[in-house]
Amino acid sequence: MKAFVNAKGAEGATLELRDVPDPAPGPYDLLIAVKAVGLNRAELARPIAKPDDPAANVAGMEMAGEVIGLGAQVRGYAIGDRVMSMTTRAYAEKALADSRVAMKVPAGVGFVEAAAIPVFFSTGHDALVTNGELKAGEDVLIAGVAAGVGGAMIQIAKALGARLVAGTSRDAGKLARLKAMGLDLPLQSGSDDLVAACMEATQGKGMDVIADNVGAGMLMSLVDAAAVKARLITIGRLAGKMDEIDLDKIALKRMKLIGVTFRTRSLEEKIEITRRLSADLGAHFESGRIKPAIDRTFAFDEALAAQNHMRANAHLGKIVLTM
What we know:
Blueprint lengths: L1 E8 L2 E8 L9 E10 L23 E9 L11 E5 L7 E5 L4 E2 L6 H5 L2 H14 L7 E5 L4 H12 L4 E6 L2 H8 L5 E4 L5 H8 L5 E6 L6 H6 L1 E9 L12 H6 L3 E4 L7 H21 L6 E6 L3 H9 L6 E5 L1
Parallel strand pairs: 8-9, 8-11, 9-10, 11-12, 12-13, 14-15
Antiparallel strand pairs: 1-2, 3-4, 3-6, 3-15, 4-5, 5-7
Helix pairs in contact: 2-3, 2-8
């Protein structure tokens, strides 16, 4: 089959289209004919696991497609089912996904939109709902809301009954576009007074759930904007990973500071994340209330151009490769 692999180029790591062996499903795996691939920023690192084994270096973290093969222990799936999943080696004509982590594509959702669901919405739901303990009527702040997962988090929060969703970004144009997705309070970093705006919007209470995609330089402003018993979840570190914090303020507000990542999750935890996501949001995907934002699609053979588009950081929403 054809696949894009991470490889050494004249100017550093790059993508190369190669012929590699078809993957063979294990006991719980689905073999999937890939129809669309969602791009993620972590793929820009282009890690090379085994220089002499191109199949081990196939890029990609999520995709959607049609089941064409089943492992012996797979239950609940059949040949021809439309599925979407976080996985590895997704930039390929065929891919494997653990059936216990995969999800069936909801009726009415196309493959392009389905490829934009697994990473962003699993990350956003795990942060806001499982770790942030979001409840209907609470107020949410998303720092770095124009980051890929930000749009998903806006929709998750609104669908699950958040009273107010605020978000920060340096890009006024992106903030304006995010208002159409449900962002109630757009805050331009460097111009708007984050703490004052959040306190005014909540009548002095502060924000109940805060998701931080920024990292360095942002933490104390988020603490100051938080309510008593707020949950502050650190997700991304686009601006850096080192910051300072006033522990006394954390204590006085009796806040929770929570870190999340998928890199240290066990299979059992990933299965549970998928189960909770499907239970809470499946009906919203099917009804169209939640619709993944697609920035742009590229043909599969344009994978390198698609990654360069992502690297330029001008996009808003998911970039998708189509087969």
